[in-house]
Amino acid sequence: MADVSAEREGLMDGMPRDDRGYWQPEGLKLPNPVFDWPPNPLKIVKWLYNYLFPWNMIYMLIAVLTVVYLQPEMSKMTTFSADWIAYIFVRNQILLIVVVSAWHLWLWSRKSQGFQYKYTPDWLAKGKKQFLFGNQLYDNIFWSCVSGGIIWTAYEVVTLWAYANEYIPYLDPARHPVYFVLMLCGIQLWRLFHFYWVHRLLHWPPLYKAGHYLHHRNINIGPWSGLSMHPIEHILYFSGVLIHWIIPSHPIHAVFNGQHAALTPAQGHAGFEAIVVNGKSMLRGASYFHQLHHRYFECNYGEMDIPFDVWFGTSHNGSAEDHEAMRAKRFASHKVSTSAA
Fold this sequence. Notes:
single chain, 341 residues, mainly alpha, 55% helix, 3% strand, globular
């Protein structure tokens, strides 16, 4: 208990926290200014810069390097064979472990910045029966690597096989360089569109009980929580890659789509809003918008880059008023369920 108390002293970090130690940052991310009217060009340019740098550019670079240097020859992928399929599976697993572990080791294992910019006052759970092995971290790694790694690779393998056999439309970047670049830059927006609707579907009670409940066992989320999902959810989640079966694209686009879906949840569930380097907030971490979804479940199904939640009335803006309204809603729901029982 003494160690826990000593760690909790890190909550006295000058950050805006409630009486339970939950950090509540000011200035929740606003909707994408592209949807504002009248348009504001300066805000749009700023949004585009933040959209691309640094993370999206890093993930795009990883995808390009993967296809150029770590991809089997297209001629080899015309038939399904264990050697190239196993190679892609191992490559994906290594990439997943390296990227997610980097977030986890810095923020959660080494606790390099303590509670600074940390949303919750707790670390990952141990000795809890709801998690495999009684350990939240081990549970999250299992579902991410086993279910997530297999289903991600399966979508990628079938898509590459379809490219190799010319079953799906292929885009030649030499002939259409502008289209190639625009599509590469737009994949994250497609993923946000796809994620919102899949996520709303997963909160349909039958699907929630069948699969999505597993992801929501993680209320206090860490990097390995992001891809910790039931196989049913992984099948729906990674299905965004099927867009490349319909519209002309290049294997780099499909690989980027899959990698983005597999790797970015580590950042989105990092549990810290910012990464501190040399005592300064240097890099964006997890979105508070999605953090609130894991806290309350029934809000913020997407992200503000495509503000579906604002349009459909499910947005929680992080204000004291919205916190109070959400607590009142949950209390009323609890009273109804209790009286019905």
